[in-house]
Specification:
The protein is built from three helices and ten strands, in the order βαββββαββββαβ. By secondary structure, it is mainly β.
Length: 193
């Protein structure tokens, strides 16, 4: 089809995304002095995401795509008697930043009599978290789904959702090693070459 003639594409994306730092905050029934030493007491997260992507369609049904996505900062509040406050001269606030670089395979299904395609994707993401506690990268699985539509043979738009797995381990200060699980919904616009 004429709509799928240009296999290389490059684009931008923006939407809403969230990290899952809230999962480290104990529920009200589980709050106790031992927990306040090691976990945040509250988290503010979620907001605008943005990114860039590039891909190559081998067929109208299969593509490989590379993606960079910047997630909103999360703000964690710790108790004044927490390990975090002790290690950081009494400060109780932490602002943490997250971004991903991913490589995914995309399987697409053309909706009959249209140029709209439903797709699902899977791949690997290298997630980067940086803040006062840690600056590290971790490779985790990532998944996506959505719809794309070729407005013209050179302009493609997508509505995309994505999930990237995080990481955590049981330790006295779980915030130190935690990598947030990531969710996003974005509108994407690409130019096809």
């Amino acid at each position: 089809s004429e709509a799928f003639r240009n296999p290389i594409y490059l684009g931008i994306e923006g939407g809403y995304g969230a990290t899952t730092w809230e999962g480290l905050v104990p529920s009200e029934k589980n709050q106790n002095p031992a927990m306040m030493l090691s976990t945040p007491k509250s988290v503010t997260e979620g907001g605008a995401v943005w990114g860039i992507f590039a891909g190559y369609e081998f067929l109208p049904y299969f593509a490989v795509e590379a993606n960079y996505m910047r997630y909103p900062n999360a703000k964690l509040s710790f108790d004044e008697f927490s390990i975090y406050a002790f290690d950081h001269d009494g400060y109780t606030e932490l602002s943490t930043h997250t971004e991903t670089v991913s490589l995914m395979g995309k399987i697409m299904l053309v909706i009959p009599t249209t140029t709209i395609r439903a797709y699902s994707s899977a791949g690997i993401a290298d997630t980067h978290r940086w803040d006062e506690m840690n600056d590290k990268w971790r490779i985790t699985p990532t998944f996506g789904l959505g719809f794309n539509y070729n407005i013209t043979p050179h302009i493609m738009t997508e509505l995309a959702g994505s999930y990237t797995a995080g990481y955590g381990e049981a330790q006295l200060d779980p915030s130190f090693s935690y990598m947030p699980f990531l969710y996003s919904v974005a509108l994407r616009l690409a130019y096809r070459f």
